[in-house]
Design goal:
The chain is α+β, with helices and mostly antiparallel strands and about 675 residues long. The protein contains 24 helices and 24 strands. It folds into five domains: about 60 residues, Helix hairpin bin (Helix Hairpins, Orthogonal Bundle), CATH 1.10.287.610; about 240 residues, D-amino Acid Aminotransferase, Chain A, domain 1; about 80 residues, Nucleic acid-binding proteins (OB fold (Dihydrolipoamide Acetyltransferase, E2P), Beta Barrel); about 160 residues, 5' to 3' exonuclease, C-terminal subdomain (DNA polymerase, domain 1, Orthogonal Bundle); about 80 residues, Rossmann fold. The protein binds 5-amino-3-(furan-2-yl)-1H-1,2,4-triazole-1-carboxamide.
C-alpha cells in the first residue's frame, strides 16, 4: 500500500469539514458566506484529491451528494422504534376534546404544548451511529420502510455528520422530506419542456424524487428536509422537553422550523393554528396543518399510545385543498378586452372548506396540456385565496362518452368572429364594445373602486342596465335617473337614489382615475398615474404622439401604441366627449405643488400604525413619488411597519434604505417643504 502523506489526509478532512459547513449555511440557514463559484472550487479540489487517493474515499464525503450507483430496488428496513402516525383533528371541538383528555389524564390545569407546522412531504427516519450518517428509510407502514440512503445522501439539508464532538452512539432522527414550492415550479416547467409528465403537487414530486432508483436524478431534484423528532437514541441523555429536543437537533445542524413554539392550553393551540393558517400561502413550502405535542417528555410517556398513534400528539389539519369531482361542462367567458376564457363548470365539491363550482382553465392550450375532456373526473385545487384550478385528470375514471373541447369560431355572446393571433395563447372576440360582454366588463371596470368608484354599481346591476338597453357606454351612466333604476328587480327607492348619488359624486375625480377608468389596454393604475402626471389634462394626453408617450419612464412601445390606438378610435373620442359634457372634472395640476419625492420609488411592507396602506401610498404619490410592489435595485426606500415580510430582507440584500414609520413621516414632511420652513 503506498504511503499517504499526512498533509493530504488532513487536507481532505479539512475540505470535507469546510464543505459541510458551507452546505449547512446554504441549505439549512439560507445564509451562505461564500459564492457558488467559491463553493464549486472547494468541491472540485476535494473531488480531485479523492480521485487521486481512492483509498481515502468515504461515503460521508460531500462529493457523494451528487448521486451514487443506480439501485435495482429498495431494500426493506425495519425501524428499531416504529414510526408513528398522528391522530387527526379537523375541528376546534376535536382539539378541545384532545386538550381536555390530556389535561385530565395528567392532572394539569393547563397543559404545555410544543407546536409546529405539519409539513406536507414524506416522513423519513435517519440513522446516525457515533455521529455519522449510516442509513435512512421511508416510513413505509410504520414498522418497515424502504432503504433510500443513497438518495437521502443527496439532500444537502441533511447533515452527513452531527455537528458535535460528543454524539450519541445511536440516534434516529425523524422528519419530513419536502420540495419547496419554487423548486416544484421549476421542476414542472422542466418536465413540461422535456415532454415529461408534470407532478400534481410538491408532495408527489418529493415522494417521486426520493424513490428514484438513480440517485443522480434525486440529486438534481433539490429536496429539502425538516427534522421534527427523535426515534431511538442510546448513549446520550435526552432532554426533558420536546422543545429542547428540537433545539438540540438545530445544534447538531439539522434544519428545524423556526415557526415552532411552546404554548399552553386550548387558547394557545388554536391561536397557533390560526396564525399558521394565515401564513400558509406565503410559506415557501406546503403544510397541511399544525401539530400539537405535549412538551414534557415524562408527561408524553405517561400518556402513552393507542394503537399506532401517540396520545400525547395531535395533527390539526387545514381543510383539504384538493378534491376530486366531475367536469360537467366548459363555458366561455368574454373579458373586457375580448379575451375568451374557458371556465370549467364542476359538480359542486368542498375544497379547503369552500364549495367550488367553477375553475379557471386559462386557454385552449391549457385544456390540451392537461388532457381534459368534458365529463372527466378531475382533481381540483384551491390554495388560499387563489381561484380554484384543475390540477389533473383521473384518466382511469374517464367515461367512454367524454367529449373534446373545441374553442368556438364565433363569440358566444355577440356572434362576432373569434381570432387567435399567431404566437398568442388567447383567442379574442373581435366585437369590441359592440359585444355586450365586453361592454359589461368595461362598465364594471369604469365603476370599480380604483377607477371612478361608483359605490353600489355591481356586476348584477350592470348586467341589467346593459341587457335592458339603458346603458351602452360609461357616459350613459350619468343620465340615469332614480325612476329608471327603481323599477329594476331587487332595487328599492332608497337604493336607486343612493346609486344616482354615487354616480353624481364620481363626477369629481382625478385625471389618473379617469384615464385608468377608460380601460385602455396595458394601462394599469400606475401607468394611468404616470400619464396623468406627465400630461396634466385629458386633451394633452389625447394629442400626445408616440415619442411624447415613450419619453415617460416605464412607458414602452406596447403601452404607447395602445394609448394612440385608443384615442384614434372615433367611438372612444365620442364617449370621452360625452363624459366631459356630463360634467366629469378633475383638478388642474398645480404649479406650486411640492414634488420632493419626484423620481423616488418606494416599497411598503408590514402594517403602519398611523395610516392604511392606501393612505401611505397616496401620501407618497402626492409628492411625486411612486409605490411599487416588489423590491429591486431601482427601489429607493423600503418603508416597514409591523410584521414586515420578506421585502425587508430583500431591502437589506440590495442595500436599500429602510425607513420605519417615524422616519417615513419625517421624509414626507421634508418632501412637503414644511420641514425646512
Ligand atoms: C409533520 N409532518 O410535520 C410529526 N410532523 O410527530 C411533525 N409529523 C410527527 N411532527 C410524530 N411536525 C409523528 C409524526
Amino acid at each position: 500500500m503506498p504511503q499517504i502523506s499526512e498533509p493530504i489526509t488532513s487536507r481532505i478532512t479539512a475540505l470535507r469539514k469546510q464543505l459541510d459547513y458551507h452546505n449547512y449555511l446554504y441549505y439549512v440557514l439560507d445564509a451562505p458566506e461564500i459564492s457558488d463559484a467559491e463553493y464549486d472550487t472547494l468541491f472540485r479540489q476535494l473531488q480531485e484529491l479523492e480521485r487521486q487517493h481512492p483509498e481515502l474515499d468515504s461515503s460521508l464525503s460531500p462529493t457523494h451528494r451528487i448521486g451514487g450507483a443506480v439501485a435495482r430496488g429498495f431494500k426493506p428496513v425495519t425501524h428499531s422504534l416504529p414510526m408513528l402516525s398522528l391522530n387527526n383533528a379537523f375541528s376546534e371541538d376535536e382539539v378541545a376534546a384532545f386538550d381536555q383528555r390530556v389535561s385530565e389524564a395528567l392532572g394539569n390545569a393547563k397543559t404545555e404544548y410544543a407546536v409546529e407546522p405539519k409539513f406536507d412531504g414524506l416522513a423519513i427516519s435517519l440513522l446516525y451511529i457515533n455521529g455519522e450518517f449510516v442509513s435512512g428509510a421511508t416510513r413505509g407502514d410504520g414498522d418497515t420502510g424502504e432503504d433510500v440512503s443513497a438518495n437521502l445522501r443527496t439532500v444537502r439539508a441533511i447533515p452527513l455528520r452531527l455537528f458535535t464532538e460528543h454524539p450519541p452512539e445511536r440516534l434516529e432522527v425523524r422528519g419530513e422530506v419536502v420540495m419547496l414550492k419554487r423548486d416544484f415550479e421549476t421542476l414542472n416547467a422542466k418536465q413540461l419542456a422535456l415532454e415529461g409528465k408534470p407532478f400534481a403537487n410538491p408532495r408527489n414530486a418529493a415522494a417521486g424524487s426520493l424513490r428514484q432508483l438513480n440517485p443522480a436524478i434525486t440529486a438534481k431534484r433539490r429536496l429539502h428536509f425538516f427534522a421534527y423528532g427523535i426515534g431511538q437514541c442510546t448513549g446520550w441523555q435526552l432532554p426533558l422537553t420536546h422543545a429542547e429536543i428540537m433545539n438540540q437537533l438545530a445544534t447538531w445542524h439539522f434544519p428545524v422550523t423556526d415557526m415552532r413554539q411552546v404554548v399552553t392550553g386550548i387558547d394557545g393551540l388554536l391561536s397557533f393554528y390560526h396564525r399558521t393558517a394565515a401564513l400558509r400561502a406565503q410559506l415557501p413550502f406546503d403544510i397541511d396543518g399544525v401539530v400539537y405535542k405535549v412538551n414534557v417528555i415524562t408527561q408524553q410517556q405517561k400518556l402513552g399510545f393507542v394503537s399506532r398513534a401517540p396520545r400525547f400528539a395531535l395533527a390539526h389539519k387545514f381543510p383539504a385543498e384538493e378534491a376530486s369531482t366531475c367536469l360537467v361542462s366548459i363555458e366561455i367567458q368574454v373579458g373586457r378586452t375580448g379575451a375568451l376564457t374557458p371556465v370549467a363548470h364542476l359538480e359542486p365539491v368542498v375544497v379547503g372548506g369552500v364549495t367550488v363550482t367553477h375553475a379557471t382553465l386559462h386557454n385552449a392550450d391549457e385544456i390540451q396540456r392537461k388532457n381534459l375532456k368534458i365529463g372527466d373526473w378531475v382533481i381540483v385545487r384551491r390554495a388560499g385565496d387563489v381561484i380554484p384550478e384543475i390540477v389533473s385528470v383521473v384518466l382511469s375514471r374517464r367515461p367512454i362518452d367524454a367529449q373534446d373541447f373545441v374553442m368556438p369560431k364565433r363569440c358566444p355572446v355577440c356572434g362576432s368572429h373569434v381570432v387567435r393571433l399567431p404566437g398568442e395563447a388567447i383567442a379574442r372576440c373581435t366585437g369590441g364594445l359592440f359585444c355586450p360582454a365586453q361592454r359589461k366588463q368595461a362598465l364594471w371596470h369604469f365603476a370599480s373602486r380604483r377607477a371612478m368608484y361608483i359605490d353600489g354599481l355591481g356586476d348584477k346591476l350592470i348586467e341589467q342596465l346593459v341587457d335592458r338597453g339603458l346603458v351602452h357606454d360609461p357616459a350613459d351612466l350619468y343620465t340615469l335617473t332614480a325612476t329608471q333604476l327603481e323599477v329594476l328587480p331587487r332595487m328599492g327607492e332608497k337604493s336607486a337614489r343612493n346609486i344616482v348619488t354615487a354616480i353624481a359624486h364620481s363626477r369629481q375625480t382625478t385625471l389618473a382615475r379617469l384615464v385608468y377608468a377608460l380601460g385602455i389596454r396595458h394601462v394599469g393604475e400606475q401607468t394611468a398615474k404616470d400619464l396623468a402626471q406627465q400630461f396634466g389634462s385629458l386633451s394633452m394626453l389625447m394629442s400626445a404622439d408616440e415619442p411624447a408617450l415613450l419619453a415617460i419612464p416605464d412607458v414602452g412601445p406596447a403601452v404607447a401604441c395602445a394609448v394612440r390606438e385608443f384615442f384614434a378610435e372615433v367611438h372612444n373620442r365620442t364617449v370621452i366627449d360625452k363624459l366631459l359634457a356630463a360634467g366629469i372634472s378633475y383638478p388642474a395640476p398645480t404649479a406650486e405643488k411640492h414634488m420632493g419625492l419626484a423620481g423616488k420609488t418606494f416599497v411598503l411592507t408590514g402594517s403602519l400604525t398611523g395610516m392604511s396602506r392606501d393612505q401611505a401610498r397616496a401620501a407618497i404619490e402626492a409628492y411625486g413619488g411612486k409605490v411599487v410592489g416588489s423590491v429591486s435595485k431601482n427601489t429607493d426606500y423600503v418603508v416597514t411597519g409591523d410584521a414586515p415580510g420578506s421585502k425587508l430582507q430583500q431591502a437589506h440584500a440590495f442595500n436599500i434604505t429602510v425607513l420605519d414609520e417615524t422616519q417615513y413621516l419625517k421624509l414626507l414632511e421634508q418632501a412637503s417643504g414644511e420641514f425646512n420652513a
